Amino acid sequence: MRFSDQFEARFTEMLTHYPTKRSVLVPTLLYAQDEAGFLSDEVITEIAGRLDLTELDVRNVISYYSMLTTKPRGKFNVQVCRNISCLLRGADELIEHCEKKLGIAHKGTTPDGLFSFEEVECIGACSWAPAAQVNYDFHENLTAEKMDRILDEYRTKVQ
Amino acid sequence: MADSPKLVNLTVDGKPVSAPAGTLLIEACKNTGIEVPSFCYYPNLSLQGACRMCLVRVEKMPKLQTACTTGIAEGMVVVTDSDEIRQARKSMVEMLLGNHPLDCPVCDAGGECELQDMTFSYGAAESKFIELKQHRDEQQWSPVVYFDRPRCILCYRCVRVCGEGMDVWALGVDNRGAVSTIVPNQKDHLECEECGMCIDICPVGALTSGAYRYKTRPWEMKHVGTTCTHCADGCKTTLGVRRAETGMEIVRGDNRDKSGINGDFLCIKGRYGFDFCNNEDRLTQPLVRRGGRLVPATWEEAFEVIGKRFKSIVDREGGRAIGVIGSTRTTNEENYLLQKFARLLLGTNNIDHHRTADFPAFVAAIHGKSNATATMRDVYNAPAILLIGNDPTDEHPLLAWQIRNNVRLHNARLYIVNSRPIKLRRQATSFTQVPSEIDFTTFLGGDESRGSNVAREGWNTLREKLRAEQGLVIIFGSEIFGQGIQALAKFAASVPGAKLVCLGDYANSRGAADMGLYPDLLPGYSPISSAAKLHQEWKTLPEAPGMNIPQMFEAAKTGQLKALYVIGANPVGRLNILHSGLNNTFLVVQDMFLTETAALAEVVLPAANAYEKAGTFTNTCGDIQILKKAGDVTTTKPDFEMIVRIADAMGFDVHKLVPFGHGVHADMGQSRGAQSGEADQHSVWLEANGLEPKVSPFDPMAILDEIQRLVPGYDVSRLELMAGNDQHTSIAAMGSGSVQSPELIVPAKNNLFTSGTLGRYSRALNSVIENKDPEPAEEVSAD
């Protein structure tokens, strides 16, 4: 299992921040997921080994956090907020629109592996509701048309 | 021991309570007789605060507090029962019952379920939930462990006992909130030590065992607390027995009452390995060889055949033509009786047993020293432990538990010296890998010629550390024998307060040794030449040393050994002796199964096992404990009775063998079963009133009298023993011992899932072995 040099540098640095090794588990998982796309068995074995944890321990933590996943996702993970502010400003319609447009439901991935879609809890962008997050990018004050444009932009990005 | 912490005073429900600083509120309440309910709190495990059942009102605190995570403080005023508290607890029960299936009538835990009890106490009979219950199918995680997810109340006791108590860490929690669930380490199955701690600690029926599930209702069983018959650690086990066609069937083993040296600990063998008793291959009637084949016979016929042959051989050729091999799984009383039978009746010292440790050398090394040996309880409390050789996790599960939890709960320092990287090194302060353990003990004893320069430097540092320890317990395996033990004892004598433990392998290996199953040593390790006390009692004793096991078989081959009497042992299976070697020897075997040895016999007598008889066992530390009859296969007999019957068939006055009640004629032949007749009810009554019957020649307690009188170091409190408490015998008070030939010591090499002959006939143990290794396993060595 090989990670990037940047990952390794971060990992080594993080270890110095805490008195116990297991404290760096969550950020390590997040960085590993950013690189590998998801947390495969291989990644889990590697990280468990590095931090002297059982694989079971690592899996338990992954399953606790909805941002961590053990299943492959699309290249772009579209997360539409469904909490109260967004709901009041049309999140339901937006979610329905995304599902139709992408042809997938909550937690689904398009057959070309480009997009995944999920409804998420508050992403902290209430002032600009309805809001969505694609990977780490925020998109705010969304409408169906705006969402279409954003998704198309991501599609052209890869081509 | 550190200074006792200062007492803190508080008020609970208007009563003044004081407890040492640092005590948890829930414990302080319990100690004064106030029960605060809880699911997740479990003594000696980390705190969880998950179930919210132990909520109490603490004055000046804004909300109800969890008594299991609140430490006591000076002047605290606590209320544990009020309308507010009852309502809070009721709401918790109601929530737990929200998705809990109401399958109590078929659930294993029904009748001994903490959720049932809690519902009964707090009455959450009505539910505000109208949603459908979320059903999940039950899962089988191993041959032993089943999981029924909807029954789980997420107290995490199983997760904690597996990790913290067992150091296995095979259970975890996936997800969060309402969808949290207990999961096994291999996604859909468990890879673990299969100890079953998780099952017994489960307050509900979420975790159930393959051995017991759906077999019976708890209230249909009778429970008998006795001593485990597998390894040499001597765990107390409570066997649940139920009427069966053949007598009383054992259906469950656990130790939920936490009595005994093991508390609630049991390994897989103690918990599920009792099923050899019910194996269909079990011998249920005497067999006598006629026309070359073993055919069923009556007990009378069998005893007559044996009595006649033994008598004619003794009369014609004397005792030296007969050999006796005893067992490491029969009781002290049976072992003592057997050697008395051999020496007094047969007039021979040809007696031996399967030796797994050099106890005679141990006695010789510590002879006359006081407080030289540690108890199993000491291992849990000692401030420091030195473990040389052995792998207790596999071979001595209780010892490993005591060591692990001593380190975890009392910060004991553990020093390990081993040729292999054993699992307990994870708890060790220092782990020293050595090419051979005996080199290290020789070094400790002062002979610094062995080992490399670099190694010796490390050993020296370790030795200095060990010398500075107060109350060190030194535990050593069968890697250390003879002079090695001498060297170790010499070192121990130089460390103030140091105590020793010598590890043998079978349930009563130590007892067999203590009771004199040696050709050159009498009970209590007295050399045969210097046994004045026994001479006085028995009048005649054979003077010449006898033959050991290999010598007996050699003598059988050359035709000098005319008869061999084997009890609960399988030397043929173990020592690989050619069948033809025994062709001209009259072989009598008492066993539960037709072992390789039994198959060659002229007469085979079906024996009861340790779960089916009374008596005592001495564990490897020297702690003596009582056995109580739990199971019963009515067509078998305890070895004790069979020895007496053979003596009787030889025309011997059995009063000289067993000093039972003079002139009393009662209970003859009926005193075996705890459930099988009027005589037994009589014995139950006697026992309930703290009386010992001793009116029958088959009563082991009559021999225990003699043991306590004649074997030094066994003069323990009979009262404590009868009460079910472990008593430490003093091996250092015994005879002078002797150094034995090391080739005679054959370690059992049992692991967690094997147990000699018993293991071969245990379905539970075999199913785990097959599950772990689908390839046909190599035949395990039999005892």
In the CATH hierarchy, what is the architecture of the largest domain in chain B at level 2? Answer: 3-Layer(aba) Sandwich
Unreliable parts of chain A: none
CATH class group of the largest domain in chain B: Alpha Beta
Number of strands of chain A: 5
Mean pLDDT across every amino acid position of chain B = 91
How much β-strand is present in the residues of chain A?
5-15%
Helix content of chain B: 25-40%
CATH topology name of the largest domain in chain B, in short, is: Rossmann fold
How many distinct beta strands of chain B? Answer: 31
How far do the termini of chain B sit from each other? 42 Å
Q: What is the average per-residue confidence, as pLDDT of chain A, rounded to a whole number? A: 95
Poorly predicted residue ranges of chain B: 663-679, 779-783
Can you tell me the number of structural domains of chain B? 4
Sheet/helix structural class of chain A: alpha+beta
Radius of gyration of chain B: 28 Å
Distance between the ends of chain A: 29 Å
Query: What Rg of chain A do the Cα atoms give?
Result: 17 Å
Structure description:
The complex is a heterodimer of chains A (159) and B (783). With 159 residues, chain A is α+β, with helices and mostly antiparallel strands. Chain A contains 7 helices and 5 strands. In chain A, a hairpin with a 5-residue loop joins strand 2 and strand 3. Chain A starts with a helix and ends with a helix. Chain B is an alpha/beta fold and 783 residues long. Chain B folds into 4 domains: 7-81, Ubiquitin-like (UB roll), CATH 3.10.20.740; 97-209, Alpha-Beta Plaits (2-Layer Sandwich), CATH 3.30.70.20; 287-356 and 509-728, Rossmann fold, CATH 3.40.50.740; 359-503, Dimethylsulfoxide Reductase, domain 2 (3-Layer(aba) Sandwich). Chain B has 26 helices and 31 strands. In chain B, the strands form 8 sheets. Chain B has a 7-stranded mixed beta sheet with strand order 15-14-27-26-25-16-17, sandwiched between helices. In chain B, strands 2-1-5-3-4 form a 5-stranded mixed beta sheet, with helices on both faces. In chain B, helix 8 (332-346) packs across helix 23 (700-710), helix 9 packs parallel to helix 15 (483-493) and helix 13 (437-444) crosses helix 15. Chain B is globular. The model of chain B is unreliable at 663-679 and 779-783 (pLDDT under 50). The interface between A and B is small, with 8 and 11 residues.
